[in-house]
Design brief:
By secondary structure, the protein is an alpha+beta fold. It has one domain (2-149): Alpha-D-Glucose-1,6-Bisphosphate, Chain A, domain 4, CATH 3.30.530. It contains 3 helices and 7 strands, in the order E-H-H-E-E-E-E-E-E-H. The chain has a 7-stranded antiparallel sheet with strand order 1-7-6-5-4-3-2. Strand 4 and strand 5 (70-77) form a beta hairpin. The longest helix is centred in the C-terminal third of the chain and has 44 residues, at 109-152.
């Protein structure tokens, strides 16, 4: 089972990737996340924890992290693996397309796909809208910091 959702964001891939890399603050823009953390750096092979609202805390494994382009996490369930892919693609010089894809694999994937997947699928548009709001806010903050730094050099 697999499903995905995309959104256009007026922010750079770097701005969006930096939001993703701040794992401890995912709950700011993803209202489905109660708690998230990572051991060490945001890179391939890292291990973290995620507590979705209404669900138990579990380990997540960062199976692939490509700076400013994508990252994938793996969550393990009984006889099922759940992959969350997050991709960042440049649409034009001012717009980035962000896609979240969830894939279930394994013997019990049809069951978990329905039990867990349907809720995730339903909430994906809101999650990506939260990311979009955060990215636009961060972009504005980055511009203000550059402007302040430029003015302080006079």
């Amino acid at each position: 089972m697999e499903f995905s959702h995309s959104v256009q964001i007026k922010a750079t891939p770097q701005t969006i990737f930096n939001i993703y890399a701040d794992v401890n603050n995912w709950s700011i823009w993803d209202k489905d996340v109660e708690l998230s953390s990572i051991e060490g750096e945001f890179k391939t092979g890292a291990i973290g924890e995620l507590k979705p609202k209404g669900a138990p805390k579990s380990k997540i494994f960062f199976t692939e992290v490509i700076k400013d382009k994508s990252f994938t996490t793996l969550g393990k369930l009984p006889l099922c693996k759940m992959y969350f892919e997050h991709t960042i693609n440049i649409k034009d010089e001012n717009t980035t397309t962000v896609t979240h894809t969830i894939k279930f694999f394994g013997f019990l994937s049809p069951i978990f796909g329905r039990l867990i997947g349907n809720g995730i699928k339903k909430n994906l548009p809101d999650v990506l809208e939260g990311l979009k709001i955060q990215a636009v806010a961060n972009k504005s903050l980055e511009k203000e910091q550059v402007r302040t730094a430029d003015n302080s050099s006079f």
